Each structure stands twice: as C-alpha cells, then as structure tokens.
Amino acid sequence: MRLNKTALGLALGLMASTALVSAASAQETTNTTRLHPKDVAFSFEGPFGTYDRGALQRGFQVYKEVCAACHSAQHLAFHNLMEAGGPEFSEAQARALAASVKVPAGPDDKGNTTDEKGNPLMRPATLADHFPSPFPNEEAARANNGGALPPDLSMIVKAREGGAEYVYSILTGFHMTPPKGFKVIDGKYYNPYFEGWNISMPPPLANNSVTYSDGTKATIDQEAHDVVTFLAWASEPKMEERKRVGMGVLVFLIALAGMLFAAYRRVWKDQH
Amino acid sequence: MSGPSTYNPKSGFEKWIDTRLPLPRLLHDTVHTFPTPRNLNIWYTFGGILTFCLGVQIVTGIVLAMHYVANAGLAFDSVEAIMRDVNYGWLIRYIHSNGASMFFLAVYIHMFRGLYYGSYKAPRELIWIIGVLIYLLMMATAFFGYVLPWGQMSFWGATVITNLFSAIPVVGGHIATWLWGDFAVGDATLNRFFSLHYLLPFIIAGVVGLHIWALHVPGNNNPLGIDVKSPQDTVPFHPYYTVKDAFYLVLFVILFAVFVFYAPNFFGNPDNYQPANPLVTPPDIVPEWYLLPFYAMLRSIPSKLMGVIVMAGAIVTLVFIPWLDTSRVRSCRFRPLMKQFFWGLLVCCILLGYCGSQSVDAAAFGIIPLVWVARLATIYYFAFFYLIMPIVGLIETPRKLPASIAQSVLGDTAAASSSLPAE
Fold first, then answer.
1. Distance between CA B43 and CA B26 in Å, rounded?
2. pTM of the predicted model, to two decimals?
3. Which of A185, A244, A271, B293 is the most buried (most CB within 10 A)?
4. Is B73 in the A-facing interface, judged by CB distances under 8 Å?
C-alpha cells in the first residue's frame, strides 16, 4: 500500500513537471498558430443544403478573373459548368466559356507541334477539356510567385482542416495590423488565419475586383463568399445528388427497419 | 450442438444432390435448424453485421478496382476521376472508405463482447484465435487500402508504418527495402500494396469460413456464459435469429448511410485530398482512427524498437487470452470484480485512441501530457491481460449462476412446463 502511494506520488510528480516544461515551451512556439476560422453561414450546409446557384455563377467569375491568374483547378472540366448540381450554366454558355480560353493542341495533320514562329499550337477549349493551368509546370509557378506554389483549387475546401470557413477566413483575413513584436517576412503578407501568419499570397480580393452582371455589390466579403461556394462545389460536385439519394435511402431503410421490427416481435412473441 | 443432421431431402432431385454434394444439407443444418441459445442480445448481432461489412467491401472494392490505376503518377487523379466521372463512383468510393470504418467499429464491438461474456473460454479458444487472425488481416488490408488514394496521409502513413520494420536490429533496413521494392515508398510499393489489398479480403473470407465452422461445433456462447443443457435453452437459427440479425443489421446500415451520405469525410483526413508529396512532410502524421490506440502505444515509448515490440505485443497478447483467464465462470455478468476491470480496459483503449489522434506534445487540459496518459493506459492494457485476468479469476467469488438458460429467460414454471419452440 505504502509502495503504491509512493509510486503514485512519483508518477503524478513526473506528470506535473513534464507538463510545466511542455507548457512553457508551448508558449514560445505556438503564438503563431492560426486563428480558428470565422463562423460563416453557407447555403450548402446541413442535410438539405444546396449550392446557391447565383453564388456559384458569381464565384466562378471570381475564380476565372482573379484566382485563375495563379491557381490551377485541374480536376474541373468545362462540361461540369453545365451539369446539374453545379453553376448550371446553359450548354451554350459553357461552350462559349470553354471557347474563350486556349489549350495546347496536338500535332496538326502534317505532324507540326508549333506554328511558323515556333510557338506551340493552341486551340480553343471544348466542353471535354479540363480547366487549363496558369503555369506550364511547378517550377514556372514557383518562379512567378516568389518561390511559393499556388495550390490547385479543385479540392482546396476538402483538403484543408476547417473547409469552406477556413478558405473564406484566409480570403478575408488580410489588411489586419500584426501584433507588436510579430515580424512579417519580406515579400509575405500578414494573415492570422494561416498557419505561421506569414502567407505568400498577396491579398487577392478587393472591393470591386469583379463586376457582377446580376447587380450584386462586389464587396470583399461578397466575393469571398461567392468564390468559396464555387470552390466547395468544385471539391464536392456531387453533393446535391448525394444528399438527395441519401434521403431516399434513409426513408427506405427506416421503413424496412420498421417492418423487420414488426416481424421480429411477431416471430419472438411466443418465446419470452 | 452440431448434433446429427436433421436434413430430410424431399424431392428426388434433392436426394440426388444430397448424395453427391450435400450443400443443401449444410445450409439447412447451419442457417436453418442450427440450435442457438435463446438469450442472445443485441451484441450478438455483430457477427452477421461483420459478414455483411466484408461483403460490402469486396463488392465495392471490385468495382473501384475497375477504375483505379495503381501508379504513383496516376493513382490520385484516378480516384478523383471515380468521384467525378464514373457513374455513382462517389457513392461506391464513399461506401468503401466509410465501410472500412464501419467494419472496424463492428469488429471492436464484436471483440469487446467476446471479452465481456468470456466467449474465448473452452471450448471456444480456436474461434477466438481465428478471430484475432481475422482482425490482424483486417488491419493489414485497411492499411494497404489507405495507401491507395496516394494522398499525403497515404504516402506518409505508409512511410511511417513500413519504417517500423527498420527498427529490427541488423536486418531491419533490408526488410524495409524489401517491403518497398525500392529505397523509399514509391511506385513499386503502391503496386504491391494494391495487389495485396485485392488479395487479402478473399483470404479473410476464407478465414471467416473457418471462424464460423469452429463456431458451429460448440455453438454460440451467450450472455449468461453457461452451457446449453436442453433443447429448451435454444431456438432454431431461422427464423428467430435471421429476423433479429436482419433488424439490427438494418439499424447498423442506417448509421452507415448517415456517414456515407451526410458526413462522408468524417473519418478521413483533409491532408489525403492533397496529392502525395515526398518532399513535404505533414505536421502531424495520423493513421486511421481504428489504428490509433496502437499508434499511441508506439509513440509513448521513447525507444523505437521497444515501441514496435510493445505495439506488436499488444496484438499478439490477444491470442493468449483463453489461457490467461483463470476464472471458471465465463460471463462478466457473474463476475463483479472482473466487470469493473473490463470497463477499465475499454476506457483505456478509448483514451489510447484519443492520445494517438493528438500531436506528440499535446496535453490534456493544458497540464497533463498525453504521452503520460498513453503510458499509463498502455501499462493498464498489459496489466489487464497478464496480471488482472489470471489473478482476479483466482481470487474473485463469482455470483451464483442460473440453473439453465431457459430458467433464466422464461422463469422456473415456464421452463418446467417445457414449451418447445415451434419448428
């Protein structure tokens, strides 16, 4: 018994001292831990949530006119823009959007891959093409962005802890005064929602970065909210179908469970 | 309980089959008339649920393999193509990825149920040991499967786990290289893991056959942990347990469906939606939740080799449980002392899981370092099997066992008047 108490005391003492040491070191190193993302309401939250069609179309505009200058979205194809559950542009609109960008073409019928001036052959994109990337390779992307690689945006909402709210917080987390004693690294920007608080991306959005055709006022918050809705769809393009099918499946399963329960009670009636 | 067969072929065709390949007889005796204790509770439905889980994983897995490309340069994109371009690919993949978690949820309930009711005790030692083997195969299969999407956590998880073998003195490094097929986790590793991920489920299915075969010799244990003594103690498997298992299976599938349709990435890690990058190590490499308790044990021990030994030991220990338990009584219902230690073990396993999910230097409430919580829980885990089990079995006074299952369920009079179940 006595031995037990001694051992317990020793264990507790050890735990306490280790805790103090780790707490002290934690204070020095974790002060640039990213802030918890802002709490923002999105149309696609909850079991019945769907993507706001207007926000998706506006968000695509923000992506196309702002983000796409540096970020790729390789997993998106132009035909996705006209599919159910997405921005649902008309087929004509989606074709026009595709045709407005050039993608590398294959060899022509003489086997040439470049024109007379030596430029690679290009052709207008079709519905089947994926979104072209702004840089030909990672090295070019880094060289144009101060050494940092702008991540692909196809799955950015799913690939970050905090999801849509995290991306929204990053986009709206600039233009704040850093706390005294915090040094913003040269060529980087202060953003406390980003781990380490130094982010390589310059503030991407400003008021009126885009002009919305539906008359919505293009504030930073509005643009961020729209583009995050678009990026959430890009991550989970089948979300609306998933929730719809899920509801049918659950209704069926609950009815089946009810019938099986009745059968179970009936079969076992004489056994208790 | 696997007494003489009661199959009685009626038509000439059935007789013809029965004398050549008595498959109908096997089915009749194992799923129809098989005498099953009448007092099995909800926790006994997980055997059937697990068979269902295995079937779901195999069927969805075969479809996924039709679209998946096991190549380090293409794997990540091929999974994303399944999610976006394959008809209902998102559904099949989410069923498969969440199915792994549901499979482990069910197997943990199944194992703790066996532990609580003493289902590993004579004459069921082999059922238990075969079960441990299935669990081991499941862990290997799940690990290989988690590597296949070739995201950041796939790659780094594979790196951490395969590197454990390098802790073995002298030959460790060679073993790791041999496992990788390269000098690091890469394309060769991905290919062989895919091959094994496709192979192992069929081996599991075979071993599950042995598990059920072994079960059908002594028959089911039951919550009272006493033997079946007369036909009154049992009911035929069909319809009594087919309908009960079906009902609870559907409840389980409802839970499964809630995850698949409404929180499909709940068990996942966001990092695995970033393509594998050997040059960028994620800040915290975390395995899937079902491996976290072992991961916590591994990390709580400063020496890598000792950590690996402890982690492997935690699994190997399970094999010896039938002989570590010295009690004459099976079920914890009648073991007041053991019951408390059992819940202690469950709490420790959950604590270990929590510790494994947090970063190495994390502390609970800001003051209790989790590494120490994990150490204490690890000590309890081993103490439970090697000290508590043998000692408590000897010093504990079990409560009085009921005379029979029928008496316990139906009361004295009903048991005496013998109401045989309708067959």
1. 26
2. 0.92
3. B293
4. no
